[in-house]
Amino acid sequence: MSAPRIVAIAPVYNEKGKIGRAVAKVPRGIVAEVVAVSDASDDGSDEEARAAGATVLRHERTLGVGAAIRTGLKYGLEKGYDVLVVMAGNDKDDPAEIPKLVAPILERGADYVQGSRYAAGGRSGKMPLHRAILTRAYPWLVRLVTGFPITDATNGFRAMTPRFLKDPRVNMDQEWLDRGELEYYLQLKALMLGFKVEEVAVTKIYPDLSAYKNYTKIRPVVDWFGNLRPILYLTLGIKS
């Protein structure tokens, strides 16, 4: 029986100086292909990712991180990969932990694995107070809505199976998912539809706080409210 084929997908928007490091850290004996999805980067990120060994897919105009992740996931499905990993394009995740992240899928038949900096054994660097509050508060909402004891619902380091992504009840193609909403939508759909979901302790790497703004594209307040939309829309039946 052949080994499962794993693809690692990194959304990228102007991450020169980071995306190359992230790609280089992916364990290539485990991961068959690294895909960097450039959301119309104009700073040389594409060339850096390609030089580090990634396949580069490009949007000709900026659509949003959700659209970039969707492009990568669809590519992985079309190529017939068995496991699809989403990781940060700005070098905040530790790709060396991919084997640990995908283990619940390969060993126990999980369909969705959420990386957690807050689970026992996970770790992260310092964060601004507003970010620390958000990353602790949002999992509480997910627990309230789904009953699943999630500890880190905002961590973008995740792994999924084609069985989950191809389910007709999962619709990635909705335009309202183009920004950060897609990540939260997929997580909620996995939980609400009864797929086997597990959480795995991982590392979230943050620089010193003086450089924090260089490691996030999230806009305080505006994007926070946008990321609440999946919970509101799905629990109220506004969207599917």
Description:
With 240 residues, the protein is an alpha/beta fold. It has a single domain (6-236), classed as Spore Coat Polysaccharide Biosynthesis Protein SpsA, Chain A (Alpha-Beta Complex), CATH 3.90.550. Helix content is 36%, strand content 16%. The chain is built from eight helices and nine strands. It has helices at residues 19-24, 45-51, 65-78, 98-108, 129-146, 162-165, 181-192, 222-236, and strands spanning 6-12, 33-38, 55-58, 83-86, 112-116, 123-124, 158-160, 197-201, 203-204. The strands form two sheets. Strands 3-2-1-4-7-5-8 form a seven-stranded mixed beta sheet, sandwiched between helices. The radius of gyration is 16 Å and the shape is globular. The N and C termini lie far apart (37 Å).
